[in-house]
Amino acid sequence: MIQLHDKFFKPFLSEKEIQQAVKGIADRIAADYADETPIFVGVLNGSFMFVSDFLKAYPHPCEVSFVKLSSYQGLTSTGIVETLLDLPENIEGRSVIILEDIIDTGRTLQELVHLFTNTNVKEFKIASLFYKSEIYNGEYTIDYFGLEIPDRFIVGYGLDYKELGRNLKEIYQLNQKHMINLVLFGKPGAGKGTQAEFLKDKYNLKHISTGDVFRYNIKNGTELGTLAKSYIDKGDLVPDEVTIKMLESEVDKNPDADGFIFDGFPRTAAQAEALDNFLESKDMNVNATIALEANDEVLIARLLERGKISGRTDDQDVDKIRNRFDEYNTKTAPLKEYYEEQHKFHSVNGIGSIAEITERLTKVIEQF
Ligand code: 5GP
């Protein structure tokens, strides 16, 4: 395990595995370009090590040049791509092969392709040492790649985290195991929102309230929001895959968070399993499920009070409140079982002052 700034990284690819991947690309390109002298264009800064090893493994005559773009800030793409070092001049009529260290969303690539429009090159190919095929959503084919890798943030062999790690000979991946991922349950009125707010600040977590995420996506007409709405409008339940995709995009939007509080999802054992699978694909997991428990009569009193202030009609009618409690009991029972089997279920007494309840939650979290 190594530390760069505030983050920990664990080994992912050895020097040998990287060199094999580099040689694989060099061999394939060499087979295609034995009869001409291509120009390789490395994309700085990340590709400098790759370009160097690649050229040593490339057996035929070739030229090399560099361009420099900038798009990543910390762990996430800012979406801003600037040209800092421009194209070589002698490329007209030549075969150009871009050498990229890694292709992620494809945004940088798009900018590169744009740079080469109107240059009258004979041919334009793209080679990348690493390729995150799951999240690439560009329209250009990646002609050559060394290794397909899952959606992990990696460093080393030219790749950095806030400028550190470029000099490592191996590739390391961000270690997610120190993350705190919580699932929060509680009947209406149990104080989930209040406590989530506190935990979020204390542990640098991102609170993902599924209801809010749905409303946001639908309101902003995102692709997933529109899809979800098409089910809702027909009176159907939104399929779990769609909800998971929304959560996934929330997780992806917050790579700097030290963990997530899932609130409002899962609601069924099948969803809990889907959440586990999704987190596992990101090398993450649920650390704990916390149910904020309180006696129904106490909650009813709280909700009626809240209803008076907010004007929410469903908080003012005792029968409606009891219905929501029944629904909660029926739905969470199998979930509780699911998480109990994994020894991840924690029940926290939700009666007391806000500070007292926070203290109880903190005790559970500080166990791991
Ligand atoms: P894209 O524009 O395809 O989203 O991102 C490409 C650029 O983002 C790469 O050239 C690289 O600078 C940076 N990048 C993408 N994924 C990673 C990663 O896992 N680790 C590091 N260090 N940089 C990355």
Work out the number of β strands: 15
Our count of domains comes out at 2
User: In terms of quaternary structure, what is this?
Assistant: single chain
Report on the biggest sheet: 6 strands, mixed
Mean pLDDT: 90
Helix segment count? 11
User: Could you spell the SSE succession in H and E letters?
Assistant: EEHEHEEEHEEEEEHEHHHEHEHHEH
Structural class: alpha/beta
- Fraction of residues in β-strands: 25-35%
* Small-molecule components bound: guanosine-5'-monophosphate
- Write the CATH architecture name of the largest domain: 3-Layer(aba) Sandwich
Cα(first) to Cα(last) distance is 19 Å
Radius of gyration: 26 Å
User: Which regions have little confidence, pLDDT < 50, spanning 5+ residues?
Assistant: none
Major beta sheet, strand line-up: 5-4-3-6-7-8
Tell me briefly what this model is.
It contains 11 helices and 15 strands. Helix 1 crosses helix 2 and helix 7 runs parallel beside helix 8. The radius of gyration is 26 Å and the shape is elongated.
Question: Features of this protein?
Answer:
single chain, 368 residues, alpha/beta, Rossmann fold, six-stranded mixed β-sheet, five-stranded parallel β-sheet, 11 helices, 40% helix, binds guanosine-5'-monophosphate
Please provide a written account of the structure.
With 368 residues, the chain is an alpha/beta fold. The protein has 2 domains: 173 residues, Rossmann fold (3-Layer(aba) Sandwich), CATH 3.40.50; 186 residues, Rossmann fold (3-Layer(aba) Sandwich), CATH 3.40.50. The chain is 40% helix and 25% strand. It is built from 11 helices and 15 strands. The strands form 3 sheets. Strands 5-4-3-6-7-8 form a 6-stranded mixed beta sheet, sandwiched between helices. A 5-stranded parallel beta sheet has the order 12-13-11-14-15, sandwiched between helices. Helix 3 links the parallel strand 6 and strand 7. It is elongated, with a radius of gyration of 26 Å. The protein starts with a strand and ends with a helix. The mean pLDDT is 90. The site of guanosine-5'-monophosphate has 20 residues, from strand 4, strand 6, helix 3 and strand 9.
